[in-house]
Amino acid sequence: MATQLPPAESNGSFYDKASGPEKVMVSSMNGSRNEWWQDPVQGLATVRHEFGEHGGVNMSIEASATFTVMEPETLGELFEGKLGPEMDFYIYSRHFNPTVLNVGKQIAAMEAAEAAYCTSSGMAAIASVILQLCSRGDHVVASNRLYGGTHSLLAHFLPRVSNITTTFLDLHALDTEAIRSAFTPTTKVLYFESISNPTLHVADIPFLASLGHDMGVTVVVDNTFSPIILSPLRLGADIVIHSVSKYISGGADLIAGAICGPASFINSMMDLHQGALMLLGPTMNPKVAFEISERLPHLPLRIKEHCNRALSYATYLSKLGLKVIYPGLEDHPHHNLLKRMANPGYGYGGMLTLDLGTKERAYKFIHYLQNNVQFGLMAVSLGYYDTLMSCPGSSTSSELSREEQEKTGISPGLVRMSVGYSGTLEQRWSQLREALDRLNLIADQVTGNCNSS
Ligand SMILES: *Cc1c(COP(=O)(O)O)cnc(C)c1O
């Protein structure tokens, strides 16, 4: 499945011809990755291990803003693009930094991408990718189920500052004609999330990627909810974005992002005269990059356990007659689709939602869980080792109007859980059960016990 980016001529903003692909800053890092890439874990293990300056098992942090050269001519050659990171020449850390480049190589290997670069946040990655692909007056076709910040960026901010407009629509209905008719001659991007926040709709990536390519646009997928589980580039997407602040970090202590795609695209983002990352400046701090590089090796293990726990909670909650949305359950409308697309052996994601009908019941439930039985924390975000609980209607999706929320299935009583893996399963289940019993939330009193299946 070759990545199909539009040729330079068809999209003037795509990369600056003055520093076109002949002046490569990062190369296609491991040749044709698609030929040997089998799975994210296998991919991660093929990355060259970088040692520390003194032979340390961990790479050193290149904590320099600027880089020195031996000859004055070298600086000129750097700015002309004749020398670059692949030859171990660096200019300035808002441009390429060796530590950030190294973690980018790890993330690229995980995503089966030719190249990747890291940003200061997920939103920085999203905004700069859109601004790299679209010029003033261009158009985006996007899913109507997006992270609140991305929705606001596309619905409000970009139209105001650049007249880049977006048509939002239900990409899950798979009404091919309805989706096609949203494209205009100025459409440059098809944008969606692999698993969408908070209703856990799963995008049919191969279908949408081929539709996007038929329409001549770049297909961009936010894979924040499903690193390791889904590999959108292998399924036909062109560019993958991550909020690294979530599962990839896993510590809820960092804000970071990543952009994965063809080397030509990553280089275009870094172009000294036309690159959105270089010129808007939200590249990653090398100290943060080091932290991330220490966590990537155990991301697959963490993901497996997030998925295990989420599947067991979802199974038992749904046996109790509660309204659970989890794509790992067979009754989820996209269960088979996810099963077909997922890398085998990792699971169906660590997010689940529980619809308790009213905001009051939802609030009481998460309050009881946190404050009475020490199950989880009332907080937004995801991917932490402890369970995080929020009510999307009044928090992360509050950017959407009530009408938009209704259209996309965000009920006021929706509780979103990013399922953690701390504590034993038995302990957590009895805490959950206590909250449900004390607050009389169980519709059909079926005895649920995590040891009885
Ligand atoms: C959190 C999140 C973002 C934004 O990422 P930040 O790192 O917070 O800027 C984008 N997309 C999704 C799906 C997210 O969950």
TrEMBL record:
The keyword Cytoplasm does not apply. Keywords: Pyridoxal phosphate. InterPro entries: Cys/Met-Metab_PyrdxlP-dep_enz, PyrdxlP-dep_Trfase, PyrdxlP-dep_Trfase_major, PyrdxlP-dep_Trfase_small. It comes from the Eukaryota. One of its GO terms (biological process) is transsulfuration. The modification N6-(pyridoxal phosphate)lysine is found at residue 246. One of its GO terms (molecular function) is pyridoxal phosphate binding. GO terms for cellular component: cytoplasm. Pfam families: Cys_Met_Meta_PP. PANTHER family: CYSTATHIONINE GAMMA-LYASE (PTHR11808:SF80), TRANS-SULFURATION ENZYME FAMILY MEMBER (PTHR11808). Belongs to the trans-sulfuration enzymes family. This is Methionine gamma-lyase. The lineage of its organism: Eukaryota, Viridiplantae, Streptophyta, Embryophyta, Tracheophyta.
